[in-house]
Amino acid sequence: MALPxxxxxxxxxxxxxxxxxxxxVGAQWVFTTEEDVLLYRDSYSIFWGEPEERIxxxxxxxxxxEQVQQIVRIANKYKIPLYSISTGxxxxxxxxxxxxxxxxxxxxxxxxxxxxxDDKRHFAVVEPGVSYFDLxxxxxxxxxxxxxxxxxxxxxxxxxxxxxxxxxxxxxPFRDHFGSHCGMEIVTAEGDLLRTGSGAIPDSDAxxxxxxxxxxxxxxxxxxxxxxxVTKMGFWLMPLPETYLNxxxxxxxxxxxxxxxxxxxxxxxxxxxxxxQFGSPAGGGLFSPSPPELVQLMQGGWPTAEQLExxxxxxxxxxxxxxxxxxxxxxxxxxxxxxxxxxxxxxxxGAAFQDGIFIPLPVAPEAEQNLxxxxxxxxxxxxxxxxxxxxxxxxxxxxxxxxxxDFFAFVPRKAxxxxxxxxxxxxxxxxxxxxxxxxxxxxxINYYSRSxxxxxIVPTWRDPVKNAHSRELFGRLVDRCGEHxxxxxxxxxxFQERVVSKYSFNNNALLKFQEKLKDGIDPNGILSPGRYGIxxxxxxxxxx
Amino acid sequence: MTHSGGNMVNRRTLIKLGTAGIAAAVAQAxxxxxxxxxxGDSRGLARAIFDERFAEARSFGSVLSTRGMPTSGIRGDxxxxxxxxxxxxLLEARLPIVGLTDRTALFCLEELARDVGMKVQGRIDHTFDxxxxxxxxxxxxxxWINAGQRLGPEQGFGRVMAALLTDPTLHGESFAAQKxxxxxxxxxxxQLVSWWMA
Lengths: 544, 198
Fold this sequence. Notes:
The complex is a heterodimer. Chain A has a domain at 114-239: Uridine Diphospho-n-acetylenolpyruvylglucosamine Reductase, domain 3. Chain A is α+β, with helices and mostly antiparallel strands. In chain A, strand 8 (181-187) and strand 9 (193-195) form a beta hairpin. Helix content of chain A is 32%, strand content 17%. Chain A has helices spanning 11-25, 34-37, 65-78, 132-141, 158-163, 172-175, 257-269, 292-297, 305-315, 330-347, 365-368, 375-378, 385-391, 415-431, 464-483, 496-500, 505-521, and strands spanning 30-31, 58-60, 82-85, 104-107, 114-118, 123-126, 146-147, 181-187, 193-195, 229-236, 238-239, 243-251, 277-279, 320-328, 352-360, 403-411, 452-460. In chain A, the strands form 5 sheets. Chain A has a 5-stranded antiparallel β-sheet. In chain A, strands 1-2-4-3 form a 4-stranded mixed β-sheet. Chain A has a 4-stranded antiparallel β-sheet with strand order 13-14-12-15. Chain A has 17 helices and 17 strands. Chain B has one domain. In chain B, 34% of the residues lie in helices and 21% in strands. Chain B is built from 7 helices and 7 strands; from the N terminus they run E-H-H-E-H-E-H-E-H-E-E-H-H-E. Chain B has helices at residues 19-28, 36-39, 55-66, 79-92, 103-113, 142-148, 157-165, and strands at 11-13, 47-51, 71-74, 97-102, 120-128, 134-139, 190-197. A 7-stranded mixed β-sheet of chain B has the order 1-6-5-7-4-2-3, sandwiched between helices. In chain B, helix 1 (19-28) crosses helix 7 (157-165) and helix 3 packs across helix 7. The relative contact order of chain B is 0.24. Chain A binds chain B through residues 1, 33-36, 38-41, 43-44, 87-89, 91, 96, 109, 131, 133-134, 137, 154-155, 369, 382-385, 387-388, 390-394, 396-398, 400-403, 460, 462, and chain B through 5-7, 76-80, 83-84, 102, 104, 107-108, 111-112, 114-115, 117, 119, 174, 176, 178-179, 181-188.
């Protein structure tokens, strides 16, 4: 496979730019051979092997901020599009491949210093190349009394994950990874260096304590965008809890979901619980095969509520479950679980309770291996087990995927919204002649505490015919959800423009505003052109 | 057949050589046949990784361990091995690693290995069908294709791969065999993969 040139850049200029990159970072860290550059292919690409696949032209790995600045200045000189990555493992959302084919990857993996972890004020400051595993190991080695919130899998970086609005699994303030940041350092499109928040005061010791600084905050401009290259980032961390406890509530009727949501929302918004984990004993569980009786029922179409209540009586299983997670001293976690049970019992007739596990923290290193998911992520322990769990999912038996593109629509915290979204997914998959795994017992995922995500997965392949079908399916999901006012909270470059197009209030006023910022901040359009639909002025007419 | 960077060369082989014959040859081979010439003895190989859950992989690991090669057993998940051990070692000294694992483990290691500038240079996918028959799907330089012809449909390939992966004649030609599969494989077929990264 021949590597593409950057668009609108002559071969001569590109060679000269590469030579200058080499001077800046050293020949060992400029990658131009096919073998090396193709390592940055997105393993889950929905354009695998096709002309539209987002292949880089080269890659360069700077060691420090000064080298990043030099790279940016060189890129400006020759109008080379850059695409910065930290660990580049955001699979299903594009991974390490650029939005614009032919971009030069700026691989920040060598900038892997953990600059500070403070277990009294509870924060960390890291460079982009630090992975969750690195930070976790550092905390353990130094016996620091803080707990991470990690995504799953945990091989990404706090910087990269948060800048794509990635999420975790513990308490609300921490599992919103961008929301828990405090302070950033950014290399601008002109190669300048700025710091946000109180970090803009030189040598401020409060950079990771007070996040606003003064005046308009600009931090949000650097997430899911292309306005700068982040070279340092601070994060607030959870103090290491004394204990962890969980317990499960089940409710009998299909109609009980709203009441369950009301109680969960009270507990979550009062910061009494961590991430609630919804399930359905009668429905089979998220991304699991539907029970045969339910499959049979759905032969006649999407069941009515009455039919579902009849089904529930026949299978004699609770309609819904939620596992509540508690963090803190033993006295408080046990008391909060008692209080939660009291509230559920009062609100929902027939609610039942199952005590879960109680774990004093920290977990001994030798005991960590014996923890099963999702407990590991609930305790901030990064893991790669999700790959092995997914491999064992019988849904991939008949026609194994090569990867997947996640479509996660956010909906309000209402039962009807969850049901409606599940039905839209079911109808759309059927429209495409695909197995419709969704059923009326589809449950929300509560990544962001104030909204729900209703999730589906679109397979990706090494087969262009299958990928074309998957792309159509994904696009249709975007469109149908958009009709209902549900957006996607993040997506891969293949779909970013389509997803962004649904945020069209007042004739796309938001995108137009972002484009004005882009024109001012990055007039040559060298930073990650096209990321989340923000194209520089010189490329807007020629968008793919 | 052609092979150039990133292009997949595939050739399924059912050529029977007689696994028993190979196994005997492996058992009798002198220690230097196990990669000492290429890989400079055990110090020339960073690690041989095998998945303890699978008999063929255990056999692979056992042969190499007996010969003094550095080995690591995993049980599917590569995280502890990579982040607590291998990554740091490879950053200090980038030496080849070989393995016989499932495809998910290779997928993860392949993604992680970019951090240390390493890539898969050859792989052989070993597939058991529901009836127990075995096929081998080779992706690699021409020397690998030829070597793969020595693999038969019977079991016992773990020991054979221990010799092949450390055979100096297999590793002279640069090849790119990365990103050939995603992490998912059918639960109905057991697929293992032998591989080499450098």
